[in-house]
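User: Some background: our group keeps a shared notebook of sequences we're curious about, and every so often someone picks one and asks for a predicted structure to add to the entry. Today it's my turn. The entry only has the sequence so far, pasted here. Could you supply the structure so I can complete it?
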Amino acid sequence: MNAVGFVSCDNIRANFSRAMSDMYKTEVPLYGTLMELVSETNQYVMTHSPEVAKSLQQTGELSRLDWERHGAIRVGTAAELATLRRLFAVMGMEPVGYYDLSSAGVPVHSTAFRAVHESALQISPFRVFTSLLRLELIEDPTLRAFASDVLNKRTIFTPRVLELIDKCEAQGGLNAEQGDEFVLNALETFRWHSTATVTLEEYQKLNAQHRLIADVVAFRGPHINHLTPRTLDIDLVQIGMPKKGIPPKAVIEGPPRRKCPILLRQTSFKALEEPITFKGQAAGEFGSHSARFGEIEQRGVALTRKGRALYDELLNAAREALGEFPNESNAARYVDTLEKTFDAFPDNYDEMRQQALGYFRYFVSEESVAQWGNKPVPQTLEQCIDAGLIYFEPLVYEDFLPVSAAGIFQSNLGDNARSHYKTHSNQQAFHDALGRETINELTLYAETQQRSLQECAKTLKVASLV
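Assistant: Of course. Here's the predicted structure to add to the notebook entry:
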């Protein structure tokens, strides 16, 4: 609670993340099983690799690991997206990055709402990958008009959460009671609804265009479609999923297994087939819909623009060499191709750092400083590292990968999913709908790295470290 009686937006975010996890565990029991597997795996890794636990402790990530989640939500209109921006702002979450998935056959463009400062991320790293349906990609004009009409008639926010958003903006925050009420009301936007707002015939037409279009348009709320915990070893989770009765997707998305993980690796279990009552159906009649699935992620070091260019080049080369979409029939060949291709990417943090491929946080070694005594302190970063006065840790990647996101989506959309759309990304249209520009994630990583260098320089009493 601050001086004027407002609860911290970081605490509201942490409370919302816990409430979301509890709700999703009730709605999708396999998610609870998945959480057990991730917890077991993380404990195994930290027990057998103490250096991993030490690194997490030094960077402040250990305390956040058990509650680290990302969710995903899909909305249908600019008004819904703009209101979500205001809702997430109450929780200290800003839109970071722009992702166009249409080139991979998914008719949406997206951003990730998250905290942007390292201190806020340590309290709660909760993220929500938020996608806006691109109605212009519905080829049939009649169906496009129908979808637009259905979406414009629905209201996905409770009246009370809208009041609380207004109040937060007007007074600069919420008190503890208002914060708790906000969490309960905001949760309703993400809740699953087993009744559709369209008839079965209308649903089938939407589904024939694209299963994701049906998922966005046919329901009265944009249910959370997955909630993702963070594991320290996704390969162990992938192996362990079938033993828990969880069928994993064929291929882990992202880079191959490495000693020094980079960016983001993701896997999931197939989307659930869930009973749905469609508009006009008699009592006891049901259809079905497949949308919600379980996902797991392993996060590595954030890459610089140079590092990301190399990653994209190698990933594209591996996929071109495979010659087809990664699936169950070619999974082993794809993994082998990926690993061989990525031999060209340094698998050593110091090499990555010296080649400016990744972002890192720098820390002063209190033990080394105490032993250093009154000797003159080196004036450059590399000299301080060589002297043991400064050590570095990888800066965790907090964002997403378009190819990986599309791969997860496609694995849950079926074999008849579209491979691509003949269109260009439209970031300006997304910004217009959002009501602001998204933040470039590379800028955030560079700022965090620079803050850590400034803190080291201040502690060592040197002018600057370069």
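Suggested note for the entry: The mean pLDDT is 89. The chain has 20 helices and eleven strands.
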